[in-house]
């Protein structure tokens, strides 16, 4: 039979790490079992994969690693249902299924020569990490202008990728701003919701693209700020979440208008979203 | 050219030795497509089947893979064994619907191997409709009761014989077994002409519906349309072009299989996210999705309306929500200017 | 019949004009011969759409919980019983409901017609007679021949709860609850029953028209949709289908009002009623209970009394 896009490859769960204080989000590191699998899994920041917890099912998760990090891929998963719970409970060394990479990706070509401001809230930061790491890689850094990251969570314990954040704070190639919702002991960075902080620290919109990922409410209030700062809809990108099953644009579940979020997305510009029905 | 039903039956029975033959069979409550071994089992003279023959290309329950867990390891297997099949007696609406499904199960990036393994290994023997039901409206949907689009071989029932037309190479290969073809008499030709020029009495106007729907997503038209809908999947499962499916696992201890099963956008939990958010939790949104998908989104993506006018949804709907009335309603709806 | 229609329309018109209700849920003429379809009338001018005859087969109580605001509902006997159960179960607020009661002789089951005439082209209903022109043949039927199975065993043709009654009352034919159809099934051998239900359940396509047409199936998450625990797989073999149907019947124990909406809704002619009827018989025999008769009452399985039969618990 021909290539079967419904069959996952098998990967080994090499690290299952609790990422947040409330223990709701774990980051899984999966290793490719052989070189051929890795060759066939060429991906770009913004893409996702369907992770299989055999016995429970499959669910789509954004890939948190960048293709510049060889041998492994990482996913950060919130415990919300059967599949995510099963993944959380997995012991290191367990074999899981992975189907991917799927979907479109952040327009890294279009971003070349431009400044980028990455705005993330909560655990929507996964593919934003992928993009930031990709751009910071020495092979690519010169392709892009200034990189600003504005990342916020309810409290410090809920921030993902604390190791990377610590590194970026010291890295002159990236301007990192972190924020939490309310003041907290031991926190000396900014305090405030993402829309407010964005208005305060966002770089000039001239020659700049914005990529925003987060809960619907955060996006809803951040967009007007970006528009006020002069970002046109063609230069604001986001990544959408949707209930998915096949991930191939066939089963009909994840559409917004004529577009399938799994295949025509999940990355969309605000200009593209304006053309689509408001149903997501 | 024509062949007597007697001779055709013999060729049919011979085919049954090498092919799985799916044909219309009489059952309590109507006609359905089932596997048969002999032409004598085939129902003649009926309107159309209760359920469309799509389940032979896209089964309601289909195994995608099986797995076995041993400790931390897992072995995953997939086997798809498909028999060479002949789908016999397929009406123009259902044959066209298969062409539409062909576009669903293949896109610019992926091709569904389960659907296409079955599709590539089946030959469609279509048949014209000699009688037309008042709930059929295929003539408005780009085909007609005698359209051979989508058939590999096309038959017209002349009573004690069939007029036979080869449409595709696949059909030609299957036809090689048919012998003793003869010319039609003048009367038979007249009958064929009548059947070929027949139209469905029920008509709808879909000439501008896609363009109209482009502007109607936020229209108040949808506010009352959905109220009597029960949100079941009766229309979805009886529709030859509906294709939505769910993927789930069936588990027994450490082994199991991943299966796909028919699903439908009418179901309230169809779009429910793991977070609890549901973009289409209102019935209004779901009915709008059905109409928009079939008459607008599918046209934008695939160039065709995803409805063939077979009328099964009209007959199976428990509350008589008639898609023809919805089409009329869309055509007559006033556009709200922003 | 005509004066009933006039009265229904006049009542609806008055209710809407006076602002007593926001919507009248009734029936209008369907698009197929011998079909009625539910309609939601919100303005007095539209009340002329409302009809009433033997084709009004949907149980409109199924729409009562989903419709916002104050609503008037046309209710036959069985429909009013469903409304009573919904009130008992706190799914409806009595003040938001205006029940337009109409007594009912029964509804026509079109499948009985189509079995003989093929698809119906034209039909007319006259007193006691239904004349049909079909794709296969034409035929004249008596109403009795076409009466839906649920209507044949109906003991509540008159609404049990209503705010206004339109038309006359109907005398109840049978005084005692009879379950001859259930006894017939019970008298079959195990093998015969098993074969029967296997055949019936193999027809089910799990469209859930039965569940959704039922006014008492209102759970936001039905047990079939639950995946933690996962009760049902997506399989549609007769075993899975029977699990669904039997599960639904058990969830309706002491609640089902035997309106037959489920059976009539089924596009595949599955004999859903057979299971519901058995359940009704058992509930009646064990608890002398018929559901939805009085608002002050309660579901059979919602109450307990010390002399409830315990044959299934205690060996006698």
From TrEMBL, chain A:
The gene is flxA. It comes from Candidatus Desulfosporosinus infrequens. Keywords: 2Fe-2S, Iron, Iron-sulfur, Metal-binding. Its cofactor is [2Fe-2S] cluster. [2Fe-2S] cluster binds at residues 246, 251, 254, 262. It holds the Pfam family DHODB_Fe-S_bind. This is Putative flavin oxidoreductase, subunit FlxA. One of its GO terms (biological process) is pyrimidine nucleotide biosynthetic process. Gene3D superfamilies: Nucleotide-binding domain of ferredoxin-NADP reductase (FNR) module, Translation factors. The lineage of its organism: Bacteria, Bacillati, Bacillota, Clostridia, Eubacteriales. The keyword Iron-sulfur applies. The keyword Iron-sulfur applies. GO terms for molecular function: 2 iron, 2 sulfur cluster binding; flavin adenine dinucleotide binding; metal ion binding; oxidoreductase activity. Residues 6-108 form the FAD-binding FR-type domain. Binds 1 [2Fe-2S] cluster per subunit.
Automatic annotation (TrEMBL), chain B:
PROSITE patterns: 4FE4S_FER_1, 4FE4S_FER_2. Coiled coil: none annotated. GO terms for molecular function: iron-sulfur cluster binding; metal ion binding. The keyword Phosphoprotein does not apply. Residues 218-250, 296-329 form the 4Fe-4S ferredoxin-type domain. Keywords: Iron, Iron-sulfur, Metal-binding. The keyword Ion transport does not apply. This is Putative flavin oxidoreductase, subunit FlxB. The gene is flxB.
From TrEMBL, chain C:
InterPro entries: 4Fe4S_Fe-S-bd (IPR017896), 4Fe4S_Fe_S_CS (IPR017900), Helical_ferredxn (IPR009051). The keyword Plastid does not apply. Signal peptide: none annotated. Residues 247-278 form the 4Fe-4S ferredoxin-type domain. Keywords: Iron, Iron-sulfur, Metal-binding. PROSITE patterns: 4FE4S_FER_1 (PS00198), 4FE4S_FER_2 (PS51379). It comes from the Bacteria. GO terms for molecular function: iron-sulfur cluster binding; metal ion binding. The keyword Cell membrane does not apply. This is Putative flavin oxidoreductase, subunit FlxC. It comes from Candidatus Desulfosporosinus infrequens.
């Amino acid at each position: 039979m021909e290539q079967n896009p419904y069959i996952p490859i098998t990967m080994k769960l090499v690290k299952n790490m609790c990422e947040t204080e409330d223990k709701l989000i774990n980051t899984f590191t999966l290793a490719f079992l052989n070189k051929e699998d890795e060759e066939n899994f060429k991906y770009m920041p913004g893409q996702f994969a369907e992770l299989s917890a055999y016995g429970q099912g499959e669910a789509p998760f954004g890939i948190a690693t960048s293709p510049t990090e060889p041998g492994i891929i990482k996913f950060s998963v919130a415990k919300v249902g059967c599949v995510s719970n099963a993944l959380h409970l997995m012991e290191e060394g367990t074999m899981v299924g992975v189907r991917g990479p799927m979907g479109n990706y952040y327009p890294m070509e279009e971003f070349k020569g431009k400044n980028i401001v990455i705005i993330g809230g909560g655990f929507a930061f996964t593919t934003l990490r992928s993009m930031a790491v990709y751009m910071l890689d020495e092979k690519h850094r010169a392709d892009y202008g200034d990189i600003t990251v504005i990342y916020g969570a309810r409290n410090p314990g809920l921030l993902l990728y604390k190791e990377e954040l610590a590194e970026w704070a010291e890295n002159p190639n990236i301007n990192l701003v972190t924020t939490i919702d309310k003041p907290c002991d031991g926190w000396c960075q900014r305090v405030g919701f993402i829309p407010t902080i964005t208005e305060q620290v966002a770089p000039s919109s001239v020659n700049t693209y914005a990529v925003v990922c987060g809960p619907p409410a955060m996006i809803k209030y951040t967009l007007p700020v970006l528009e006020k700062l002069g970002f046109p809809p063609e230069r604001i990108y986001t990544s959408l979440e949707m209930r998915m099953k096949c991930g191939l644009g066939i089963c009909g579940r994840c559409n917004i208008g004529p577009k399938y979020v799994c295949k025509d997305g999940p990355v969309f510009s605000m200009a593209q979203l304006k053309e689509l029905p408001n149903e997501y | 050219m024509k062949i007597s039903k007697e001779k055709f039956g013999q060729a049919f029975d011979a085919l049954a030795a090498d092919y799985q033959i799916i044909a219309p069979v009489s059952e309590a409550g109507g006609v359905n497509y089932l596997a048969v071994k002999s032409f004598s089992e085939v129902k003649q003279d009926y309107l159309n089947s209760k359920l469309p023959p799509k389940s032979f290309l896209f089964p309601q329950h289909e195994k995608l893979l099986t797995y076995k867990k041993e400790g931390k390891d897992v072995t995953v297997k997939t086997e798809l064994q498909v028999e060479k099949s002949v789908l016999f007696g397929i009406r123009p609406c259902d044959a066209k619907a298969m062409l539409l499904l062909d576009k669903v199960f293949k896109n610019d990036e992926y091709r569904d191997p389960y659907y296409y393994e079955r599709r590539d290994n089946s030959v469609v023997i279509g048949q014209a409709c000699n009688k037309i039901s008042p709930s059929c409206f295929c003539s408005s949907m780009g085909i007609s009761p005698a359209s051979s689009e989508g058939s590999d071989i096309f038959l017209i029932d002349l009573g004690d014989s069939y007029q036979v037309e080869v449409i595709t190479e696949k059909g030609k290969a299957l036809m090689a077994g048919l012998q003793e073809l003869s010319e039609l008499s003048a009367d038979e030709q007249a009958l064929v002409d009548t059947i070929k020029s027949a139209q469905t009495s029920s008509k709808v106007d879909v000439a501008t519906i896609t363009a109209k729907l482009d502007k109607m997503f936020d229209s108040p038209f949808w506010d009352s349309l959905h109220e009597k809908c029960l949100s079941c999947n009766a229309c979805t499962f009886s529709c030859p072009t509906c294709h939505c499916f769910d993927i789930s696992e069936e588990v027994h201890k450490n082994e199991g299989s991943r299966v796909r099963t028919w699903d439908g956008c009418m179901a309230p939990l169809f779009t429910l996210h793991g977070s609890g958010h549901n973009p289409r939790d209102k019935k209004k949104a779901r009915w709008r999705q059905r109409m928009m998908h079939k008459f607008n989104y599918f046209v934008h993506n695939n160039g065709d309306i995803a409805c063939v006018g077979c009328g099964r949804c009209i007959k199976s709907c428990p509350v008589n929500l008639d898609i023809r009335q919805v089409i009329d309603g869309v055509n007559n709806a006033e556009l709200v200017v922003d | 019949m005509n004066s009933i229609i006039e009265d229904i329309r006049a009542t609806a018109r008055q209710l809407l004009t006076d602002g007593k209700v926001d919507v009248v849920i009734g029936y209008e003429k369907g698009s197929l011969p011998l079909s009625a379809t539910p309609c939601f009338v919100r303005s007095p001018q539209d009340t002329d759409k409302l009809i009433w005859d033997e084709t009004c087969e949907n149980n409109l109580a199924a729409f009562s919980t989903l419709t916002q605001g104050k609503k008037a509902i046309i209710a036959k006997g069985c429909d009013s019983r469903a409304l009573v159960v919904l009130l008992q179960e706190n799914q409806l607020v009595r003040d938001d409901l205006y029940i337009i009661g109409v007594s009912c002789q029964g509804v026509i089951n079109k499948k009985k017609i189509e079995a003989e005439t093929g698809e119906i082209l034209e039909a007319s209903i006259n007193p006691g007679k239904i004349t049909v022109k079909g794709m296969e043949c034409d035929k004249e039927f008596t109403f009795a021949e076409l009466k839906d199975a649920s209507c044949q065993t109906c003991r509540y043709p008159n609404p049990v709860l209503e705010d206004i009654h339109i038309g006359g009352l109907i005398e109840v034919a049978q005084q005692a609850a009879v379950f001859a159809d259930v006894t017939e099934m019970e008298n079959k051998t195990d093998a015969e029953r098993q074969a029967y239900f296997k055949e019936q359940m193999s027809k089910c396509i799990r469209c859930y028209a039965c569940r959704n047409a039922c006014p008492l199936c209102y759970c936001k998450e039905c047990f079939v949709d639950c995946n933690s625990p996962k009760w049902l797989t997506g399989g549609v073999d007769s075993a899975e289908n029977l699990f669904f149907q039997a599960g639904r019947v058990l969830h309706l124990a002491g609640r089902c009002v035997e309106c037959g909406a489920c059976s009539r809704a089924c596009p595949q002619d599955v004999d859903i009623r057979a299971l519901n009827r058995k359940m009704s018989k058992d509930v009646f025999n064990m608890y002398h209970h018929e559901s939805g008769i009085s608002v002050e009452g309660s579901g059979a399985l919602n109450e307990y009394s010390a002399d409830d039969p315990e044959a299934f618990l205690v060996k006698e």
